[in-house]
Amino acid sequence: MTMKNKPVSGSRDNDYLDILGMRVDLVQIPDVIKRISGWIENKKIGNYVVVANAYDMIAGKKNDKVRNAINGSSLSVSDGISLVLLSRFKGHPLKRRVYGPDLMLESLRLAEIKGYSNFFYGTTQVTLNLLVNNLKARFPGLVVAGTYAPPFRALDNDEDKTIVEIINKVSPDLLWVGLGTPKQQLWMYEHKDKLKVAVVVGVGAAFDFLAGVKPQAPRWIRDNGFEWLFRLITEPKRLWRRYLVNYPLFVYYVLIDLIFKSHSRLKAGSSRP
């Protein structure tokens, strides 16, 4: 795990962390929103944002396609508290997470002001209807270009083509994707050159939280790094493996990475004349 200040791919120009071979940009919500607005105003299509946590890092460590999807993004931001703590350990004092639901709400606040249109892709149609109703109540002037709830299975080529055509027909400024990890990262990566959209943002469970179909941890719990415990308690059957297996595995991989790189530096230093 190292800190870099040169872009790996795309148009990134900010500092970032290399965590297990994946890039996590050292930005906060205002930075992300500024970047999103710039892409929309300059009509630059093909950008996508990964909202990353330790689970994404483990998925990328195990799967080259997921790793490529994270590294191929326009921005990969630190949604997980573990990534924020790692950034602080490396000397970059990120104040807080780029929490997916907060990023979504702040972006939609700007979208209402600027008149940016939005499309919501993922979850179920019932959840999407609740989500749009809640968002319109909060942001009455929000432009919603459309919604689509894909089936919970792999799409065939004709179905995938139809979905792309539906989205491109309305050509939203912002496409919000709630498919979960790693499905949403792979989907954004595979469709970035097919969609006539300035910005695609994968926000995972934000759809469920903002629709009110799943409980969201109180802010004091989120701000103190214990949202994972709240989610484990509220969804133990679905999330136990993520938090009790994959998160300890993430810590293990990071420690091995730190030890290996530290050993490599010592070895290189001892070989100097």
What key attributes describe this structure?
single chain, 273 residues, alpha/beta, Rossmann fold, 53% helix, globular, disordered N terminus, disordered C terminus
Percentage of residues in strands? 15-25%
Described by its quaternary structure, the protein is single chain
Number of domains: 1
- Count the beta strands: 9
Kindly state the mean pLDDT as a whole number? 87
Label the overall shape: globular
Helical amount among residues, as a percent range? Answer: 40-55%
Q: Structural class, please?
A: alpha/beta
Low-confidence stretches: 1-11, 263-273
Top CATH class: Alpha Beta
- Radius of gyration, Cα only, in angstroms? 19 Å
Largest sheet, in brief, is: 6 strands, parallel
State the separation between the terminal residues, measured CA to CA.
27 Å
Number of helices: 12
Write the CATH architecture name: 3-Layer(aba) Sandwich
State the CATH topology.
Answer: Rossmann fold
- Order of strands, main sheet, comes to 5-4-9-8-6-7
Q: Your description of this structure?
A:
This protein is an alpha/beta fold. It has one domain: Rossmann fold. It has helices spanning 29-41, 54-62, 64-71, 81-89, 100-114, 125-138, 157-170, 183-191, 206-211, 219-223, 227-234, 236-270; strands spanning 2-4, 16-19, 22-25, 47-52, 75-78, 117-122, 143-148, 174-178, 199-202. The strands form 2 sheets. Strands 5-4-9-8-6-7 form a 6-stranded parallel β-sheet, sandwiched between helices. α2 (54-62) packs across α12. The two termini are 27 Å apart. The model is unreliable at 1-11 and 263-273 (pLDDT under 50).
